[in-house]
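Bit of a strange request maybe. I'm writing a small parser for structure token strings and I need a real example to test against, not something I typed by hand. Could someone generate the tokens for this chain?
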Amino acid sequence: MTDIAPLAASTRARFGDAGVHAVVRNGRTVHAVGLGEWVEGEEVPELLCHTGIAGWSPAVLEPTRADVTCAHCLRRLGRTSSSRQLSLFGDDENQLG
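Reply from user aminoacidic:
Good idea to test on real output. This should exercise your parser:
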């Protein structure tokens, strides 16, 4: 069995400073980060909104100091978004009609 402690420690170090948030892969949404239990009791950074990441690996999270833009993360932080969450289908809800 592989020891994952070094991977977990290096990932925690990338997100250890205050004000460091995350983007997933090359995404545009900036998420707040907290620590969560991973494997064998190791803690690693996870998205505060708990958005699922297919094939989760600590390597998919990229640190950023940009402001959090995820509406779910902002609610968990007790803040509100200055912009609306983007609609999946545009502003007109009756487009299928």
